[in-house]
Every structure is written in C-alpha cells, then in structure tokens.
C-alpha cells in the first residue's frame, strides 16, 4: 500500500531579518525535524522520496528529517510549487505523490476542506503530532 505523508516545516526563526522565503529554522525547529525523522524511522515510515518547498525552513526540515531516518539528503527534491500552496492545489496538481513525503507550509493543512481531503492515514499506524 502506498502512503502519502504531509509534514509542515519546523518552527521558524522570526527574529532573523529576512524574507519569508529565506527564514531559517529556530533551534527548536531543527530539534523537531530530527525528532520527527527518528519517529518516522522507528515506525517504519521511511519514504522513497522527499519533496520539499525550496524555502529555507522547509528544505532544512526535510534534510534534517532525512538524515535522522538514515537517508542521504539526495532523496530530497525541491519543488517551487509547494511554496505557499494550499493542500487542495497540491493534490489537484499531482505534486503530492504517494509513497513520498512533502514538506510545506501551514496553509496546506489549515482549511477544513483541506483536512477533509486527508483520508490517507492507515488505521494500523499511530498518529503523531510534533
């Protein structure tokens, strides 16, 4: 069975004077990215490919998560369509491919419509909120 895992980037550092796109992760965000990678590894949810927004915080989250799963960071592919896209756009465009992990931004999972379309969690897998 193929699975789609959607993750939001780690906590970003708003104290840094930069554009939204270039905003880095806070120390807490870096720790969280490593923790979720370890959790995914421990629950045998290791993806074939990780597709990430090219925004600095999303890319950094994806690469730290991959490393924590024991994957080479070459499994991380940046896709500009993920930056600020909502979940419906991702699913409609086919960017979110099954058996992959997509790291994006908060808007992807905020709307009730988007949450209603997420019927992808297997009942035999535990849920996790970072």
TrEMBL record:
It holds the Pfam family His_Phos_1. PANTHER family: OS09G0287300 PROTEIN (PTHR47623). This is Histidine phosphatase family protein. InterPro entries: His_Pase_superF_clade-1, His_PPase_superfam. Gene3D superfamilies: Phosphoglycerate mutase-like. Substrate binds at residue 57. CDD domains: HP. It comes from the Bacteria. It comes from Candidatus Reidiella endopervernicosa.
């Amino acid at each position: 069975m193929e699975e789609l895992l959607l993750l939001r980037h780690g906590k970003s550092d708003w104290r840094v004077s930069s554009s939204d796109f270039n905003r880095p992760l806070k120390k807490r965000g870096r720790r969280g990215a490593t923790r979720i990678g370890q959790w995914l590894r421990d629950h045998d949810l290791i993806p074939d490919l990780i597709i990430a927004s090219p925004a600095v915080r999303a890319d950094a989250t994806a690469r730290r998560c991959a490393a924590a799963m024991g994957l080479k960071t070459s499994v991380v592919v940046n896709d500009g369509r993920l930056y600020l896209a909502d979940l419906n756009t991702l699913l409609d465009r086919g960017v979110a491919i099954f058996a992959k992990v997509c790291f994006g931004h908060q808007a992807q999972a905020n709307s009730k419509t988007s949450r209603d379309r997420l019927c992808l969690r297997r009942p035999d897998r535990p849920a996790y909120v970072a």
